[in-house]
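Milestone M4 deliverable, item 7.
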Amino acid sequence: MSKKTFKHGIHPAGEKHLSADQPIRLISAEGEMVYPLSQHIGAPATPLVSAGEQVLAGQKIAEAGGFVSAPVYSAVSGKVKGVAPHMTASGETAPCIIIENDGLHQWVDDRFRPDFPDRSVPGYVDALMSQEHVARLTSADIRNAIREAGLVGLGGAGFPTVVKLTPPDDGKIEYLIVNAAECEPYLTSDYRLMLERGEELLAGCELLLRLFPNAKCLIGVEDNKPAAIKSLTEKAGKYPKISVIPLKAKYPQGGERMLVYALTRRKLNSSLLPSGVGCVVVNVATTISVFRAVTLGQPLTHRIMTITGDAVASPCNLEVPIGMSYEQVMAQAGGFISDADPEKVITGGPMMGTALYTMEIPVTKTSASVLAYRFDPVAVDDPSACIHCGRCLSACPEHLLPQLLSDAAENEAFDQFEKYGGMECIECGSCAYVCPAKRHLVQSMRFGKRKTGALIRARKTAEAAKAAEKGGKDA
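Output delivered:
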């Protein structure tokens, strides 16, 4: 029987062996902590603290700035230095709460500590799930706990989790899909979570299923992770509504549209949310955070990161305090190899990550990794003219025409970009990966989407104004 998958896509070298066998290690926060108020899609959070104030670890330091927003919590105790602009991974400065870490690690509540409870004690998940207050929770209670904990999509998108879990009609959701594909090369944090905290993952699924009375849960795992598939399948035996589904290892299998299609054969596009086809999609780390938020009231203060690449001395998976600098994280990971500085450092995966030019930036809720290369393979390849080989067409998971879209964007022919379906591009980089001419296809797509999106919004605004004017005259 063939593995479930989607059409097209690519098969880049996985390179997961570098860190796949390294257990998650909790590190302590060092140095000054920086908390951007925008660590999520939506409105920035609103500061609750001011300069000179003492805070504890696990304390809320910024409130959600609206429904599509999320609060921010400190991972350390210390003194607030103030709210000031600071560089972030995007290369731009953003308003941030800056805290002088006192090194005492005093917590608001010991239940908020990332190492609580002792995971070596058998049955701790069942004990938390059997708490009387957990058994009585309503769907509103569960959503409130998720909102209060500041959870966002930890797979990288950063969409506030409670918004995703609040579709127009809970009863129309048929599938709760857990994205356990982890299709980006090098990254292994979700893999380690599945192996080490699989019971927490399944309990999180069980809690989320309470929100959707007609849904069953599908956990999609790529078949290059057989140990995770075996472990989760065995543990899921006591959950009749949860199934572990092997997927063919292929990039971008973990893309939301690809994953939904592979598991349900239902199709999504840029104008349709998963809830529109009866699905809700959550990430592995997010689901585990749901379990801890609901059973312990634990806010999001730490996240799992993979530190890897051929320039890293000791590739590993770390549980990192949010707000800590990449430089400090790298130091605790063991640093770079001693004979040379890396030519390129990326946060996120090699396909969709962001290249860094400084390590003096803070870890945020969406920071997935530090990936360091001794040599930059992209820098040596100068792009040439398109040779019309068609490889990008065969690779594109959205069945687009990347070479035509790239030309339209570069020529600023945004009407053609829209006509050719450019707004459906998911910026996965598959086209650029297979391009023998080494054209900068992804950059062109991003430029085209940004400019075309602005024109579409302006057009809709003008149409709405015209319709309102016409309605006023008719009245």
